[in-house]
Amino acid sequence: MLRTMITATNTMGQLQNKLDTISNNIANSGTHGYKAQQATFNELMYQQFNNDKKDPTARQSPVGIRYGSGAMLGQIQTNHKQGSLQTTDRDLDLAFTKPKQYFNILMPDGENGTKTVYTRQGDFYLSPLNNGTVMLVNTDGYPVADANGQPITLPDNVKGFAVRDGGSLEATYPNGDIIRTDLAVTEFQKPQLMEHVSGTYLGLPNNLAELGFAQAEVVTDLQGANRQQIGMQNGTLELSNVNLSKEMTDLIETQRAYQFNARAVTLADQMLGLINGIR
């Protein structure tokens, strides 16, 4: 009975983690650019019990008895499928029309440094600076990077924006001047290696070399002729790719599995009580 209780409690803890993943997907179903995550399970180790030394019966199954010890959360994979596009008619709302392409955002790292993170959430704004210029930032106030990895700054009093072929952001001014800036766009070659930083931000893992990969194998900065592969348009935002029907189905299945394991613990406890009550 103790084995039953240990097996069930091992699995219940892992099911709780899956419930957390599902609830996070549901909570972010309205977050622009969010990519759903899916938890998968693996079996834990088995214990071999050899009880067939005097059993002459020919068997087609493996000899002995194998006791399982429950299931564990094997991995959490991110679904990078393209989400639906929502029309907003706002100049600085940008969305990719191709999967695995990401904006580069300069996130503060430490006291004065910054690190590059990646997101598909493209609702950008203009933040005024002290020298008569404005900086292109995202909803969190982090600078959006240009093709050279630098923050995008422009003279103020911009009249409007448009996105041209190759991911070029075109700023128009009342006097007819036009300033074009190439947005930094990175394409993921191995998206499952990317590390979740926070919100909709993804980043390269710190132990990339230990995993046996070079940065060029995981991400590709679309530069030069490769910029023609960029699919981008403004006046739209990419919606979350969370499938609420699937998430609710997974939620019910996980809850039932949790209840079954809890019931196993209860039954094992009752059997232990019966044994202890024998006089």
Summarize the structure in short.
By secondary structure, the protein is an alpha+beta fold. 23% of the residues lie in helices and 32% in strands.
Please describe what this structure looks like:
- It is built from three helices and 20 strands.
- The strands form eight sheets. Strands 8-7-15-18 form a four-stranded antiparallel sheet.
- The model has no long low-confidence stretch (mean pLDDT about 90).
- It is of the alpha+beta class.
Strand tally is 20
**Mean pLDDT over the residues:** 88
Number of helices: 3
Strand order of the largest sheet: 8-7-15-18
Q: What would you call the structural class?
A: alpha+beta
The proportion of strand residues reads 25-35%
Percent of residues in helices? 10-25%
> How would a crystallographer describe the biggest sheet?
4 strands, antiparallel
Order of helices and strands: HEEEEEEEEEEEEEEEEEHEEEH
Pick out the low-confidence regions.
none
Radius of gyration: 27 Å
Coarse morphology: elongated
Measure the end-to-end span: 19 Å
Notable traits:
279 residues, 4-stranded antiparallel beta sheet, elongated, 3 helices, 3-stranded antiparallel beta sheet, 20 strands, alpha+beta
Topology readout:
Blueprint: H1 2-27, E1 37-43, E2 47-49, E3 65-67, E4 71-78, E5 85-87, E6 94-96, E7 101-109, E8 113-119, E9 125-128, E10 133-137, E11 153-155, E12 160-164, E13 168-172, E14 178-182, E15 185-188, E16 195-198, E17 201-203, H2 215-218, E18 219-221, E19 232-234, E20 236-238, H3 244-276
Antiparallel strand pairs: 1-4, 2-3, 5-20, 6-19, 7-8, 7-15, 9-10, 10-11, 12-13, 13-14, 15-18, 16-17
Helix pairs in contact: 1-3
